[in-house]
Amino acid sequence: MSHLMNTYARLPVAFTHGEGAWLWDSNGKRYLDALAGIAVNTLGHAHPKFTAALNTQIGRLIHVSNIYQVREQEQLADKLCAISGMQEVFLCNSGCEANEAAIKLARMFGHNKGIDTPNIIVMEKAFHGRTLATLSATGSRKVQAGFEPLVKGFVRVPFDDLDAIRQVAAHNHDVVAVLVEPIQGEGGIRTLDIHYLEQLRQICDQQGWLLMLDEVQCGLGRTGKWFAHQHTGILPDVMTLAKGLGSGVPVGACLAAGKAAGTFKPGNHGSTFGGNPLASTAALTTLEIMEQDNLLSHATAIGDFLLQGFRERFNNATGVVSIRGQGLIIGIELNKPCGDLVQRALAHGLLINVTADTVIRLLPPLVLTQAEAQQVLDIVCPLVTDFLSQGD
Ligand SMILES: *Cc1c(COP(=O)(O)O)cnc(C)c1O
């Protein structure tokens, strides 16, 4: 028995090392990694340039304190603003922390304009993290059950439904912000209508609300653009990042622009580790390598290849409800719970995931080659076909 708290039903495998999109377990068996630690290992495993940059930084400085100026952090913030068009960055260590910062920022923004009980509109099936405020914002009873009382101040509407938001606007004058994932990750790789974000931007402008995008899972190159919302013409007021930002080194960010910028003053928010020299170097180096190695266009090409492969194979297949995603964030929804497929794929040397009970989820590292993508198709497609042909 392990002395770990029993928070994860873990698969019976432990990895010892990796290279690119491959991992090896303690028995020497090799696995193709189509999950990347849940959208974290952007550059795959043991990327030589990344490893070298981290080694240099570790030999120089790991942590000082946010009591001092941190040059690595300033460089990262400059780079993040350059690629996003945002104006300022708060650095933290995880996705839930980035969203906590966004929620606090929205509340303070509300208080600054005289709203004493600010509300934030959130979505059904959303996932924003497991701290008290972020699990309250999350649209899953499974995540919330047992942790009541929940944090107040969230108003929930259906995903991809602008009329529901207009109705809230008509009746609730305490709304200060809308928080939404441009592609819902944990909720089942759910995408929005292509005009949704543009129209939501308009509503937010008319109402004086902040548009806050949680790009913790779908951001950082996964969709083929730096950020998923960049497939539209809009700019958010607040955007949160984490998962893929440090290629495995914990780092999160909350970015602000426009009317959200300048909300926090010294003393309003903080983090001991947030943006330390090691984490900032990991994130900055990740972004630089993504640029040098053209990983955005690569993610588009390999994502298209995978999506087309799945669509050709499962076009009109009974049991396949839909195939969704963009770039290297892909979901295949089946008509029955399919958690078993994770173990079956593992036995075939492939790491995948199932979310929302019925959705096979692929989040491979952005360095996945076309030959490796073909291997993913060659393993997943027959497994799904077999699984669907079996009775319950
Ligand atoms: C994973 C995730 C989070 C939470 O990130 P943690 O680093 O686990 O706290 C928040 N939002 C989205 C969209 C996520 O996918």
Secondary structure layout:
Layout: E1 15-19, E2 22-25, E3 30-33, H1 36-39, H2 48-60, H3 71-84, E4 88-92, H4 95-112, E5 119-123, H5 132-137, H6 141-144, E6 154-157, H7 162-171, E7 175-180, E8 183-184, E9 190-191, H8 196-207, E10 210-214, E11 238-241, E12 252-256, H9 277-292, H10 295-314, E13 320-326, E14 329-334, H11 340-347, E15 350-351, E16 353-355, E17 359-362, H12 370-389
Parallel strand pairs: 3-15, 5-6, 5-7, 7-10, 10-11
Antiparallel strand pairs: 1-2, 2-3, 4-12, 8-9, 11-12, 13-14, 14-17, 16-17
Residues 94-96, 99, 127-129, 181, 185-186, 214, 216-217, 242-243 line the site of pyridoxal-5'-phosphate.
Verbal overview:
It is a single chain. The chain is an alpha/beta fold. It has two domains: 15-47 and 293-389, Aspartate Aminotransferase, domain 1 (Alpha-Beta Complex), CATH 3.90.1150; 51-292, Aspartate Aminotransferase, domain 2 (3-Layer(aba) Sandwich). It is built from twelve helices and 17 strands. It has helices at residues 36-39, 48-60, 71-84, 95-112, 132-137, 141-144, 162-171, 196-207, 277-292, 295-314, 340-347, 370-389, and strands at residues 15-19, 22-25, 30-33, 88-92, 119-123, 154-157, 175-180, 183-184, 190-191, 210-214, 238-241, 252-256, 320-326, 329-334, 350-351, 353-355, 359-362. The strands form four sheets. It has a seven-stranded mixed sheet with strand order 4-12-11-10-7-5-6, with helices on both faces. Strands 1-2-3-15 form a four-stranded mixed sheet. It has a four-stranded antiparallel sheet with strand order 13-14-17-16, covered by helices on one side. A hairpin with a 5-residue loop joins strand 8 (183-184) and strand 9. Helix 3 runs parallel beside helix 9. It is globular, with a radius of gyration of 21 Å. Bound molecules: pyridoxal-5'-phosphate (PLP).
